[in-house]
Amino acid sequence: MNRKATIEEKLTTAFSPLHLEVVDESHMHSVPEGAQSHFKVTLVTEAFAGQPLVARHRQVNRALAQELASGIHALALHTMTPEEWFAKGGKAPDSPPCLGGGKRD
Question: Which pTM was predicted?
Answer without folding.
Answer: 0.83
